[in-house]
Amino acid sequence: MAEGSWEDAAAEDSKTGGELNPTAKPFTFNPSASGWTPGGGAAAAAPAAGEAKEAPAADAAPAVEPASTDAPADAEGKGDEGAADASAADDGGKADDGDDAAGGADGGVDGAGPEEKAAEGAAGGAGGDDGEPEEAVEAPKAAEVVDEYDPRDHLNVVFIGHVDAGKSTLSGNILYLTGMVDRRTIEKFEREAKQRNRESWFLAFIMDTNEEERAKGKTVEVGRAHFETPKKRFTVLDAPGHKNYVPNMIQGAAQADAGVLVISARKGEFETGFEGGGQTREHTMLAKTLGVRQLVVVINKMDDPTVEWSQARYDEIVGKLSPFLKASGYNLKKFVHFLPISGLSGANVKDPVGAAAPWWKGPTLLQQLDELPVGGRDKDAPLRMPVLDKYMDRGVMALGKVEAGTLVAGESVMIEPMAVEATIDSILINEVEVRTARPGENVSVKLRGVREEDVQKGFVISSIEKPCSVVTKFEAQLMLLEVKGLFTAGYSAILHVHTCTEEVTVLKLTGEIDKKTGKPKPRKPMFVKSNAICTAILEVPQSICLERFADQQQLGRFTLRDEGRSIAIGKVIRLVEGPRGDVGGAAGGAGGDKK
Predict the structure, then answer these.
(1) Contacts for 523 with CB less than 8 Å, ≥ 6 apart
(2) Residues of the chain where predicted confidence (pLDDT) is lower than 70
(3) Among 109, 217, 295, 561, which residue's beta carbon has the most beta carbons within 10 A?
(4) How many angstroms separate the CA atoms of 386 and 398, rounded?
(5) Please, are residues 155 and 232 in contact by the beta-carbon 8 Å criterion?
(6) CA-to-CA distance for 381 and 383, rounded, in angstroms?
(7) Which residues pair with 232 in a beta bridge?
(8) How far apart are alpha carbons 135 and 324 in whole angstroms?
(9) Which of 456, 391, 443, 383 is nearest to 414 (CA)?
(10) Alpha helices by DSSP H, 346-496
(11) What's 141's DSSP letter?
(12) In terms of pTM, does the model score above 0.85?
């Protein structure tokens, strides 16, 4: 055993028992020493001036059991000499011998054992022979809390369309082309898809993660992923296309700022999805109802043998879609953008299609997404954050999208409709802790001062000064789609509003609107039929959070569904009654009228 080694120091400490020496001189740092040795025993004494001391070789450093981990916190992130300096300063120049040795073993990089320390000491000793002090080693620091996650605008983009239009494949290819998925992962998915005899599904496996989705080739839950461009940050919401999972699609579209309507150009597939009772029409109507103003319509599978980038086929599909989109309420010139792509090959997704379609001179899909405007976000409005989900992690964690106002860590908030006060303990955006979150950000919020049952899906985290309105009755304007029979008082359906799902009943019809003039008809109707526009008072059995559409659009628009179909879309025009009395006063406090 070499003199002055780690085991010498440990043996000496075990003999002395780490007793305090009251006559010992205060520790003085010697910058000319060849290398720092843990203090506490005779082996730790600094060599006399001019006396050379050989540093132990790194590969010969014996392993010992780690000592106590009571090193001062200030020594973290420093090198060996910096850790000793900080330790001596914190202890006022006096230190217990045993604790000194422990601090020497554990100081520096968190989690480093004695072997690593000996190796670093050897390197420091080699550098100290020329009389220069050892350079401090910068340790990884704890994650810092940033004021703002990223100054670039953030957009939630929902991918909608008929089943098998290629939504998941396109979403997966975007992630691959933007560098969010590496080649090794793609190769693994290629092997898995080949084993299932579905070679073309490998890109969809990026978004379809569970066994049911991969086995059937159908998206069930809304897939969620992120990608970035130099101008913006995006969250991909891959909505299911099958009619059985429309409620899941609604939850995804309710979070979206923009939509990508995926249309299959393959012969027969477009006709099935659009004209044969497919989901293209319903998805488009729901997206508009749920606040998706900007719509990018991609004509997918243009490289299919039945199409081969035919401009005639592209023009045919655009010609059939345009009247329907206009009737759905979209402004074709301002808010709808058509372009051809191939989601599987990536043509015209990131790079231009080139010679395969010389007739196309427009932008690629990513270029078009980069140019989408971001509007309707008011960071100074009263806070509104509908809860999408919650879980427990050393406290209650709530997930959702900030619809209005600014979320600030440390501030008190009100959770409606339960009127429970809580404190924002921390805010996470993509696992990065931030102090504030602007409208449009998807966040995970840790709440302090609440129980798990106080936070549920469909609740709204709002400001204390102007909390969200809570109602059991409200008046709405409805546009009926396809209703079986008559729509009249007593009709029941399922209400989908922001992240809330609740049963609703029609109490009475208050008016019918003439579709030609847009004005109310003079007589109140007893009933209305499909495609009519009417106003009605609706009632829910339990209190829910709503706002007038004129005050907060995302909390004031909704969808009614019955027997697996969407039967009406609507907007809240008046808050009638709530569990705490005058709801009109609450709406007025948030900017609404007092009725």
Answers:
(1) none
(2) 1-149, 199, 202, 208-218, 276-277, 580-595
(3) 295
(4) 9
(5) yes
(6) 6
(7) 153
(8) 70
(9) 383
(10) 365-370
(11) P
(12) no
